[in-house]
Amino acid sequence: MAITKTIxxxxxxxxxxxxxxxxxxxxxxxxxxxxGKTSDGRVMFKTFDEFDHHSVVLRAAPESGFDYVAFKVxxxxxxxxxxxxxxxxxxxxxxxxxxxxxxxxxxxxxxxxGHRIELYAEVDMAENIPMLLNPDPWIDPPRGMxxxxxxxxxxxxxxxxxxxxxxxxVLGMFYPEYCNTPxxxxxxxxxxxxxxxxxxxxxxxxxxxTIHHHAFYLEDWNAIGHAADLIGKHRxxxxxxxxxxxxxxxxxxxFFEPSGNRIETYAGGYAAYPDNPKxxxxxxxxxxxxxxxxxxxxxxxxxxVT
Amino acid sequence: MAITKTIxxxxxxxxxxxxxxxxxxxxxxxxxxxxGKTSDGRVMFKTFDEFDHHSVVLRAAPESGFDYVAFKVxxxxxxxxxxxxxxxxxxxxxxxxxxxxxxxxxxxxxxxxGHRIELYAEVDMAENIPMLLNPDPWIDPPRGMxxxxxxxxxxxxxxxxxxxxxxxxVLGMFYPEYCNTPxxxxxxxxxxxxxxxxxxxxxxxxxxxTIHHHAFYLEDWNAIGHAADLIGKHRxxxxxxxxxxxxxxxxxxxFFEPSGNRIETYAGGYAAYPDNPKxxxxxxxxxxxxxxxxxxxxxxxxxxVT
Amino acid sequence: MAITKTIxxxxxxxxxxxxxxxxxxxxxxxxxxxxGKTSDGRVMFKTFDEFDHHSVVLRAAPESGFDYVAFKVxxxxxxxxxxxxxxxxxxxxxxxxxxxxxxxxxxxxxxxxGHRIELYAEVDMAENIPMLLNPDPWIDPPRGMxxxxxxxxxxxxxxxxxxxxxxxxVLGMFYPEYCNTPxxxxxxxxxxxxxxxxxxxxxxxxxxxTIHHHAFYLEDWNAIGHAADLIGKHRxxxxxxxxxxxxxxxxxxxFFEPSGNRIETYAGGYAAYPDNPKxxxxxxxxxxxxxxxxxxxxxxxxxxVT
Amino acid sequence: MAITKTIxxxxxxxxxxxxxxxxxxxxxxxxxxxxGKTSDGRVMFKTFDEFDHHSVVLRAAPESGFDYVAFKVxxxxxxxxxxxxxxxxxxxxxxxxxxxxxxxxxxxxxxxxGHRIELYAEVDMAENIPMLLNPDPWIDPPRGMxxxxxxxxxxxxxxxxxxxxxxxxVLGMFYPEYCNTPxxxxxxxxxxxxxxxxxxxxxxxxxxxTIHHHAFYLEDWNAIGHAADLIGKHRxxxxxxxxxxxxxxxxxxxFFEPSGNRIETYAGGYAAYPDNPKxxxxxxxxxxxxxxxxxxxxxxxxxxVT
Lengths: 306, 306, 306, 306
What we know:
Four copies of one chain form a homotetramer.
Chain A: E1 6-16, H1 19-29, E2 33-37, E3 43-46, E4 56-60, E5 65-73, H2 76-89, E6 94-95, E7 106-110, E8 116-120, E9 149-157, H3 160-170, E10 174-180, E11 186-192, E12 200-204, E13 210-217, H4 221-233, E14 237-244, E15 250-256, E16 262-268, E17 279-282, H5 286-290, H6 299-303
Parallel strand pairs in A: 1-4, 5-8, 9-12, 10-17, 13-16
Antiparallel strand pairs in A: 1-5, 2-3, 3-4, 6-7, 7-8, 9-13, 10-11, 11-12, 14-15, 15-16
């Protein structure tokens, strides 16, 4: 790989209107482990395959949606450098004041798209981590959809060109694929800080601070089929899929958790490299890029966000 | 991801005793594209999914085996830094004099294990690259075993502790898994410069400059099964698999190409992160680590190298 | 199995408005072999895995749609018995006069639904059959969608209760699943003469002699995904899927060949046994029964027939 | 299908030296449901997908091995016909006196190979059957290896030519594949009474009344991989696989349950038809026929029976 300063999107906090049902869904259908509750009642999760204390937090709220995503950076020194670089880029930075058990200092700021982005360098290991000594692939067979990791998220908001500039110039990410409008304005960008096809993506959208989906990684196409079987069995509201993205080449299914946030389960995707040429999409073909089997845009995909 | 200076193992040159049969095998069974021949008759290949000029070279020789592997580094400046750091580490560095069409300057040196390692920063793009504008996943359905990329290699040789030190301290890689002997000596190490589970691995072995296998990446477990179908159909000499590695968690099948070099087709594997704790194997359990379904070491695995 | 007199639906003839494009589709996308042409220009096909002379015939016509399906029965004596029983059931029987190379005598009649059904006992083997001596699974890797066999068909027409009675009482088939309207009228029935989940199915529909789809069998869910990749690549008009039927439990994708006939590629499905209790669907849940992942009826599924 | 009188092998009783461990294995690793115990302590099982009262019985005994297999026939009248035909064939028939809860009258006899074979026409439905009204594919996600049904068995014993003659002439089965020795003596035959690739198979072997394996059906190649993951996790003694049979074309893995009986988990396989030509194997190629990926016979396969 190349020189990048962010390791991964390590923490996402989502608002849910029905905490109890959403918790049951993340636990029993997605198959995440409940790590515990914060003192103010938010519920923490991690996948069976993650090492950090927790990666997903659900917060009861009157409206579902996105609170923030936090990126883990390589070390404390880099964290301070990135704070300074973020301020130099023009975004005032604060220190997160809400409790995230196990997590060290988190800097946060509001991106031009209206989303809160956080950076941190330190987090405790979870109690329930994968085996380290002569490890089996898993301690117990994964449950539910067998989500392996919180993988990426897609945010909708205004002025994504600036957001992409922040993630590349300040955080050192690169974008393997992108779509501009016919007049050259950024419409959709997929960004990664490593070899994963994407860590975060943006779509240009008038309303700020909205989220299209957050995604969990599954083993392969067969796991996508198994997830779909559970969607059928549990009467989950499906959005699109099983299908393949031409963009990133991943295999996917989208659905809505009980509070209405869209979730993707995603598998495959190419290994991204910063020296490879970028793949470019035109707006008239982006539907096929998103849904390769359908060959066209699914209306709900652009219209339903939280 | 984190700060690493190498992008990937981008080029491997292998010796083959039967050039014609081995070329047919790489082309028709593995499914690589023949890029062309060097002026001295070596044959260049790339996968359908690679962008660089070529990634695999076969050279006719009286004995099969390994010539060298070359790692692509981030840029020309880094290349010079790494040259200096390699010399400072104690390895004399030369400039490769053999022709590799499309490749810029390559520095090379002999690792303590007896293997020639090269570094380069520049290589032309191939003529036949994946689509860039509104891309389909592939231009034509992949042929043969549908190899997606030259993925990694496993070298056998003496003093691998020093080799690991070179790859981590100089090249900036890290090792997600390792196995030491009961008295604490390095026995087997898996190293990566990015999120792939491994780019290169080493096993301690008395004879220098030997190779266990080089590996190509397939899409998933089903592609492993398809590769195995072709092994049956083409009467390929199978070594082990289809099976799963507990180490890296990848799914795999090993076999021998017509000149006797062992090849692996590999799928899956976890996303490696430098901040995750390392997985440790003991020698008495390494058989299960390598072959999770068999639960024990396959004798040929340690005995047959080229 | 039990006592049944029909072996399988062995021959289907379809009308196509664009013979050239449809032939190319069956050959290159579905992956069937062109067996040859009849003297009047119809094109015969078989899958790589079928033994009989041909199983699919395309006939150029001003409107796409269904000509007839023919069932192979166990022997010549049974054929005569079934002719008599068909006439006793009330359907006048004729001897088919159109050329089907390799086929022996075919009796035909018009079912109450308006469809022509044929019965035959003898057909020559194809020249290009699967291996018989120490056979590989296939002579060459299957092409395109890798269709293994003409599997079943779904006909739409009036008075399907009588059709079901004919297929069970005369031909000895049974129906593992069915759906009646709330007032007890037959709405949809799936029938089989062996252990396959279905050989033929009927849906009650005002317009006679219409066909919903004919289907080809694929190896598994992964083959369904591969078929979907080809749908994307070849810009095939997809209808529904990849998804699972709760009915028969098969995995599926529907799409339209260039002349507008709907084709299904289908995998899996339970082993049907005549002694097992029948599965029953209510009309309000049949959408979920057909499309288990979508959980509801896809409008085109009931509206588009040829 | 054609006229056959047997529906399926519906019941197998096996002897196990360690009842407790074997019961735990069938329940937790294979994923069968424990139906209950007979009054003399034998343990009854069925798969999640079977309708009959139970299909597998384990009996504690000093030596592991095969007690008997029972075939379900179409009806009571056929049962009596088959009793008479069996006696006419030369085998004295008795009425089984051991308790099999839920089962009606069972006729039994000793085949020339030394094995007890039984026939029955009636059995109660199990309490825990698959859904019948608007059914989901399963009530709960299948456990363990997700065995779908008791599928077939392979018996070793002398004079299998006579056994094949009994199963074809009396029971009406047919053999899609077979292997004779160079001097034309039957060596291995695969027999089916329906469209499944095999219901029972025989290999010529000096010692009478021995069993090679009994097999459970899994959904597909991916389920075979999942079964193999559990073999690794539970440290099950694997025999062969994951691999493909060229014979029947099924995908497979063999392993030993705690009492030493060999079990196969099997997926796929072609649809067998009585009118298709038979596939023939020569003894020198049968290794490849059994293990298509290995391309040769695995020694344990012929040597270890119970």
